[in-house]
Amino acid sequence: MMSMSHERLSEIEGWASQWGTLPHGMACEVLSALRDARRTLATVEHQLALAHQAIGLATTCVPSMVLDPDHPIEMMQRVCQHLAERENREIDLGRAITGWIAANNALKQRLAEVEARDR
């Protein structure tokens, strides 16, 4: 499928407006289709710009990442990998803290038992 640019659409519109030999209804249909194509192209360009902004924003989660606009999928895969690794580190840290709290509570309990026995 050929990519259509605004310049190319303008060029085709220029040709279409000079097609005096076409029946009037056909020329109008061509021009209408070109206007629709221009609106569609503008919508797609806007959506692409939003996607680029979203990718740029997501990459801020990985401070060491270098932006590579030619490989947005790979960039997002790296962001996801980084976030998954960070989440796993946080889970491991949470487990360690839970273990330390349990050990601290057990030591407090044991100390209270020893102090009660020595009284």
What is the first-to-last residue Cα distance?
Answer: 89 Å
- Total beta-strand segments: 0
Spell out the helices and strands N to C. Answer: HHH
Q: Please state the CA-atom Rg, rounded to the nearest Å.
A: 32 Å
Question: Quick one: biggest sheet?
Answer: none
Uncertain runs are: none
Shape: rod-shaped
Strand content: under 5%
**Relative helix content:** over 70%
User: What would the average pLDDT be, to the nearest integer?
Assistant: 83
Task: Walk me through what this model shows.
There is one protein chain. The mean pLDDT is 83. 2% of the residues are buried. This protein has helices at 6-17, 24-58, 72-118. The chain is an all-alpha fold. It is rod-shaped, with a radius of gyration of 32 Å. It starts with 5 loop residues before the first helix and ends with a helix. It is built from three helices and no strands. The chain is 79% helix and 0% strand.
